[in-house]
Design a protein that fits this description.
The chain has 79 residues and is an all-alpha fold. The protein has a domain of 55 residues. Helix content is 47%, strand content 0%. It contains 3 helices and no strands. Helix 1 runs antiparallel to helix 2. The radius of gyration is 21 Å and the shape is elongated.
């Protein structure tokens, strides 16, 4: 499937899976260097960690939340 046909949950899951795959590919060797980039402090692995951190903070859905009260500034609800 392509972007327009995916739900937010599917996009969320794909971001996490892709970032995890990148982290596996760029996991530092015992000498501290990335096996793919051959550098210390791999920026690609840092970006993947940032994606996982950001995506895990976002809540796409709320389970068991109480219904919200009406907006006091909305005239239709006050009448």
């Amino acid at each position: 499937m392509t972007g327009p046909n995916l739900s937010l949950a599917q996009i969320h899951n794909r971001l996490i899976l892709t970032a995890r795959q990148i982290l596996r590919q760029h996991e530092p060797e015992p000498d501290g260097r990335c096996p793919t980039c051959r550098s210390t402090g791999c920026r690609i692995a840092d970006a993947a960690r940032d994606v996982i951190r950001t995506v895990s903070q976002v809540r796409l859905w709320r389970v068991g939340t109480a219904p919200t009260t009406g907006d006091p500034d909305n005239r239709q609800q006050q009448e």
